[in-house]
Amino acid sequence: MAENTSKHTILWVDDEIQLLRPHIMFLEQKGYDVKTATNGVDALEIIKHEYIAAALLDEMMDGLDGLAVLEKIRELRPGMPVVMITKNEEESLMEDAIGKEISDYLTKPINPSQVLLSLKKNLDSADISREVRAKEFMAFYQQISMEIFNGVKSLKRWTYIHDRIAYWQIEFSKNTQYDLEHFLNELQGTANKEFQRLVTDNYVDWVHQAPDIPLSPQVLDKYVAPLLKKNKKTLFVLVDCLRYDHWLAVAPLFYNQFDIVLQSHLSILPTATPYSRNAIFAGMYPDAINVKYPDLYTNPDSEESMNRYEANLVTDYLKKAGLYLKNGHSFHKISDSKFGDNLANRFSDIKNNDFIVLVANFVDILAHKRSVSEVLQELVPDESGYRNVVKNWMEGSYLRRIIEAAGEADFEIVITSDHGSLRVNKGAVVKADRDSTNSVRYKTGRNLVVSGKSAVYVKDTAPYRLPKTHLIGTYIFAKDDYFFLYPNNIKKYEKQYPGTFQHGGISMDEMLLPVAHMSPKR
Fold it and tell me: What is the full DSSP assignment across 145-198?
């Protein structure tokens, strides 16, 4: 029994089918092949032996009534759309039909356009939607391509471009039949190159005079302090390494409980936790942090040691901002699910605080562990797989429980990230002294040598607001999708790193970050 792919074959079942001839002719003119039956028994025989795309079923018939026929159809063809047509407007009948998984419900008198619309909705909606969405994407592609060609200077506009590219990535991953991904990949590649050029040319100006979106040190000033000044209890959640597309994937989990306003910020360079996260919590650039905590950057290869003062930085920030909270604040860094589950279970113990800061490291740990785990590489083969794992984690995680509990306790919630990540592909050899860092997308050291094609080289750290120590004299930040290699062990790392997610360099995925303000629906 082969499916007719040229047009849909439908079955109309009605004991007064002769009165419906004009409707049938209308559907035939629209390309449908209409078969008819005057009773349920004949209808079921046709469905048993022929391919029927959908059935139009009268509710009142002699013998088997419409609901009885519907039940039999569900046994024979569970997925076949069935449209019930009836004179009866009783709510109980509608509920019975819905309970038996009716596809649509039309009340007599019906007109041909009603029937056509119902059939299109049930048989052609995916194709129609795909066609409309494809036109929307191509219009977006042409518009953004022209904008980029003419030059985009506003970071707020770049955030919009990044947001829409991430949106279409998610759309295309849901439906692989679009066959437009090559256009999207081309657009993303072009956009990333132009964004990288903009950052390279303007970054020094931005760190001295903030552009039209906040940088890391302005995040608390812009998005958190105004809430605290209004005496609103606030939960600030920083998910390490959460990319913009990750947030778009997980946001629907919170739509029922929260009103969400999505904004953004720009990570400072390097896009790495010891710099960007410290800057967020301190409300200062790393050079100023280094003055206050001169021992912080003495071991530049240890992220853990360079983030050991985060709780102190938050306390110092609150004092500097003049935020004296009546019920205090608390700081919690979650590095494993056991600690996270424990915190979720005892959220009632901390909900009286006016301000709660929460750091969750799962997404960053996933990226780093994936680099050395074949199992994780299979689970997270690409950006779509990465999004799916992050969404699945969030769905059942301690973090979702904490956020929902905070909403129930009438907290305002701000969620962001310190940096994103980029899937790298090309190796660039770096010559360096033995004290230079082992990081993959950025390096610090005293004598770094690298091709200008693959990296931005920073010799004078002051304009970049970066610390300079006896071990840190210069910085390099990777461009495009490069990762850094040392001359020794080149073959090992050329094999290990391509296709992995790394951070520290210059790209939209690493620098343009979501800031979601979530207010509980009251």
Answer: HHHHHH----HHHHHHHHHHHHHHHHHHHH-GGG--HHHHHHHHHHHHHHHHHH
* Residue 102 amino acid letter: I
C-beta of residue 64 within 8 angstroms of C-beta of residue 14: no
Please say whether the beta carbons of 485 and 227 come within 8 A.
no
Do residues 206 and 327 touch, judged by C-beta distance below 8 A?
Answer: no
- Name residues whose C-beta falls within 8 Å of residue 447's C-beta, 6 or more positions apart in sequence: 431, 432, 433, 473, 474
pLDDT of residue 438: 84
Quickly state the pLDDT bin for 376 (edges 50, 70, 90): confident
| Cα–Cα–Cα angle for 374, 501, 463, rounded to 5 degrees | 150
Could you give the maximum distance between any two Cα atoms of the chain, in Å?
A: 94
Task: Give residue-wise pLDDT tens across range 72-109.
Answer: 998 999 889 999 888 876 666 666 666 667 888 888 88
Question: Which residues does 321 contact at the CB level (< 8 Å), separation at least 6?
Answer: 220, 221, 225, 283
Q: Which amino acid makes up residue 425?
A: N
Round to whole Å and give the CA distance between 21 and 23. 5
Residue-wise pLDDT for 301-340, tens only, equals 666 677 899 999 999 999 999 999 999 999 999 988 999 9
* Best CA proximity match to 417, nearest among 344, 331, 511: 511
Beta bridge partners of 442: 477
* Gap between the Cα atoms of 62 and 83, Å rounded: 18
Give the strand order in the sheet containing 82-86.
Answer: 33-37, 9-13, 54-58, 82-86, 104-107
- Are 177 and 130 in contact, with CB atoms under 8 Å apart? yes
Q: Indicate whether 5 pLDDT > 70.
A: no
In which element (H, E) is residue 219 found? helix 219-219
pLDDT of 1 over the 50 cut: no
Question: Which residue type sits at 307?
Answer: N
List the beta strands (DSSP E) in 40-103.
54-58, 82-86
Residues ≥6 apart with Cβ < 8 Å to 77: 47, 52
pLDDT, mean over the chain = 91
